[in-house]
Amino acid sequence: MDMMGPMWMMIAVLAILGGLKWVLRRVNWWVYETQLGDKRHALPPGDLGWPFIGNMWFFLRAFRSNDPDSFIGSFVSRFGHTGIYKAFMFGNPSVIVTTPETCKRVLNDDDAFKPGWPTSTVELIGKKSFIGISYYEHKRLRHLTAASINGHEALSVYLPYIEENVVCSLEKWSEMGEMEFLTHLRMLTFRIIMFIFLSSESEEVMAALEKEYTDLNHGVRSMAINVPGFAYYKALKARKKLVAVFQSVVNERRNERKTKKWLKKEDMLDALMEVKDEKGETLEDEEIIDIMLMYLNAGHESSAHTTMWATIFLQQHPHFLQKAKAEQERIVKERSTTKKGLTLMEIREMKYLSKVIDETLRLVTFSLTVFREALTDVSINGYAIPKGWKILVWFRSIHLDPQIYPNPKEFNPSRWDDYAAKASTFLPFGAGSRLCPGNDLAKLEIAIFLHHFLLNYELDRVNPESRVLYLPHTRPADNCLARIKRHNTFSTQER
């Protein structure tokens, strides 16, 4: 009989804990679903998770493991291949879409969906940046900046500068011994985007800014906990420092423009300071700074990471490397003796290298998702998305879908031979009106680097089995610690 007391007490405790768990698991349902009335019955299948944190714990756990796709995999295993699931992500009731059809609808319907980035992300990147402004503001500013980033004339101007920096950097790195390949690639691509925006090449300024951008990015996809020791807290401090630097640059440029000796620099900052709306009004400093902060971030991170992975993948697959290298050798040998350096026409002749870049973009999927918000009640595939709910367009699921890409986790540029990606099955830069405005510039940078690397260098990784991290972006834990070796088998001056 003496044993019955503790046993019943244990049963009671377990019952209480079970009841508490049941209640906690229903809190988000009660707060966000019951108010929808009958519409809640048409919501996509899914799970809103725990109060406040929702599904974020499971998301972070998956992306800090060796199997990031287990996050979406858990939805598929529990609710089937519906391609659309309800969840609670980044502090909001959300719908995750994972198929080409659902993604296409969300990305292209500007009447039903607007940018829906988490408040924490907008705080970091900027309320006046492209992710925080209205459709009409975005359209106007994109029209201004796109030609200066992606236009044929602009790319022709940037090409010699990019090539010169690539050649010099590779030569310098080959003499350094062990170095973090990714870190130095990021400095290279940051120098390029700084030149485009600010005509600036100060090594000290660039090193300081790039370090702050590293902290900023670690906070973008973290939980918004503004407490010392957390990534978001550190990211907010980084943004404050970046804004202070850019404000001083804008102030200096404004003062220069008031003097008689001012010479127009023809960079993006000059363009932003001169643009006027239909009322003849110019942009405020906050708008200029947020746009610069966004562009300088996006303009170097994706290019550097994709370049690193393309280099790694080619080194891991000698057959593909030799095929890509042979193409580059042919292009140089066919070049007129009167020409020096690459041209846009030669870049466009790099058909196989383009497949290498596309395959890297697909396999790595630098941006795993983008955010939208429903402007009104929307129905997709028979499921209701309530007004105000966030939509996460999950690119990673599409790029790694075996029904679209057989053996999706295998690096195989030849899969693009005679293959035209169907609508919304290849989304490395997004789609619709919010397509990344710097996509052509990014691919140009990657192609120029790989051209010179393939002809004259090889990568010797110190830790080829280094663990892969997936947040904020996919990268080796050691930032690709390696040696760059010059093999001197081919010269771009040979004919």
Automatic annotation (TrEMBL):
UniProt keyword Coiled coil, yes or no: no
Location of the protein in the cell: Membrane
Keyword Membrane: yes
Location, primary (coarse class): membrane
Pathway given in the UniProt record: Hormone biosynthesis; Plant hormone biosynthesis; gibberellin biosynthesis
Listed GO MF terms: ent-kaurenoic acid monooxygenase activity; heme binding; iron ion binding
Bilayer topology term: Single-pass membrane protein
One Pfam family it belongs to: p450
Cofactor list: heme
Function: Catalyzes three successive oxidations of ent-kaurenoic acid giving gibberellin 12 (GA12), a key step in gibberellins (GAs) biosynthesis. GAs, which are involved many processes, including stem elongation, play a central role in plant development.
Protein name according to UniProt: Ent-kaurenoic acid oxidase
Organism annotation: Gossypium schwendimanii
